[in-house]
Amino acid sequence: MEKAIFCWSSGKDSAYALLEVLQNATLEIVGLVTTVTEDYDRVSMYGVRRTLVQQQARALGLPLDEVLVPKNADNGIYEARMAEALIRHRDAGVMAVVFGDIFLEDLRAYREEKLAPLELKAVFPLWKRDTRDLMETFIESGLETVTTCVDTRALGEEFVGRRIDASFLADLPVSVDPCGEYGEYHSFAYDGPMFRERICFGVGEKVLREGRFYYCDLLPRASSCDRLDR
C-alpha cells in the first residue's frame, strides 16, 4: 500500500476525504500537513488556533507537520516552504498527497503542477462528487463540524460559529455551494468516526476582518464540550 500525507485544512472536506480514504484502505496515511500563519498561530484562512489542530491530530492518531508561513506571504514563500516539507515526506517514503478539493479545475491543476517536480502524485477522494449529495452523506456519516469563517459576500454573520447539520444546509442561500467550495465558508471538524475522542472547545467572539470575512474564535477547553445545537 502506498504511503501518503494528507494536506489537512482542519475542516469538513478534509475530514470527510480522510474518512473515505481510511474506510476504503486505498492508501496508508502516515501524517497530516497543515499551513499555519506564524504571526497569528492559526491555520491559514480558517482562523483555527494551532492548539486545536494539534488536538485534531492527536485524536486522529496521526503526526502533524506544521508548515509555518508569515502573514501576507506571497505564493513564492508558501510554495517554497510547502515544497521543503513535502520533500522530507517523500524522502521518508511518501508517494502521494491527499486533498479534499471537489471540483475547482484550476486548483487541481495547480496542485498537480507543483507536485510533479517533487515526484509526488495528487489524490482527490471527493473529486467531482455532487456537493449537495456530498453534504448530505457527510452529515449522515457522523462527522461533526462548526463554521469558523464566512465570506460576507455570500453569507451573513449568523452563519459563522454554527454547527454544520441538516438545518445549516437547509438555511444556505441557493447561490451558495453546499460545500462552500468557492470559499463561502470554512469549518473545523471536532468529532467523527475516525476520532479517538471528541475535541472540546468554547465559542468565542466574532470578528470582521478585511471588511469582508467574519471569523469565530474557537477556544480550546479541557472538558465541557459545546454541542452547538443552535
Tell me the strand percentage band.
25-35%
Distance between the termini: 42 Å
Which blocks of ≥5 consecutive residues have pLDDT under 50? none
How would you classify the helix and strand content by structural class?
alpha/beta
Count of extended strands = 10
Morphology: globular
Radius of gyration: 17 Å
Estimate the helix proportion, in percent.
25-40%
The description of the largest β-sheet is:
6 strands, mixed
Order of helices and strands: EHEEHEHEHEHEHEEE
The number of helices is 6
Q: Can you give the mean pLDDT?
A: 94
Write structural notes for this entry:
With 230 residues, this protein is of the alpha/beta class. It has helices at 12-24, 50-60, 75-91, 105-115, 131-140, 166-171; strands at residues 3-7, 28-37, 42-43, 64-69, 94-98, 121-123, 144-151, 185-191, 201-209, 213-220. Strands 1, 2, 3, 4, 5 and 6 form a 6-stranded mixed sheet that branches. The radius of gyration is 17 Å and the shape is globular. The model has no long low-confidence stretch (mean pLDDT 94).
